[in-house]
Amino acid sequence: MGGRPLGNGTKTLQVPESEHTIIAVDPKHDARVVVSAAAKIDWSTLPEATITVRVLPYATEVKIGSDSLGPTPVQPRSVVAGVSATYKVMVTKDKATQTRLVKLKPGEDQIVAFDMRK
Fold first, then answer.
1. pTM for this predicted structure
2. If I label 61, which of 21, 24, 101, 115 is the partner at 20 to 30 A Cα–Cα?
3. For the segment 2-36, what is each residue's pLDDT rounded down to a tens digit?
């Protein structure tokens, strides 16, 4: 639909038949999820992927978007992948922060590695 917002929350949208995908934005996880356009889309039933965060030597906080997973070590996190997705992962140690954009496909286990020794 030309990249313009169609709504938020639980909505009924009219998507032209020529459109095969829409982009769902998950602000809590700072994610963009490409979803197949269908008669009904239920976020809880969309395909998932896994993000596994590894940090050397450690991080005092790990976040996916604004969702804090706490200090390392953190368990792998399942996230909605749709057709494809991009999530922002941030790690912090003391006053240093590193950020990565993680691109995922359904069923994928993406390992995101950070080196905080620098």
1. 0.81
2. 24
3. 556 566 666 666 666 666 777 777 888 888 888 87
Distances 83 to 16, 32, 66 between C-alpha atoms, Å: 19, 11, 23
Q: Say if residues 92 and 70 touch (Cβ distance below 8 Å).
A: no
**Strands 21-26, 61-64: parallel, antiparallel or unpaired by DSSP?**
unpaired
Q: Which amino acid is at 90?
A: M
Which CATH number describes the domain made up of 16-118? 2.60.40
Q: How many CB atoms lie within 10 A of CB 59?
A: 26
Beta bridge partners of 24: 33
Domain ranges of the chain: 16-118
State the DSSP H helix or E strand holding residue 99, giving kind and residue range, or none if neither.
strand 96-104
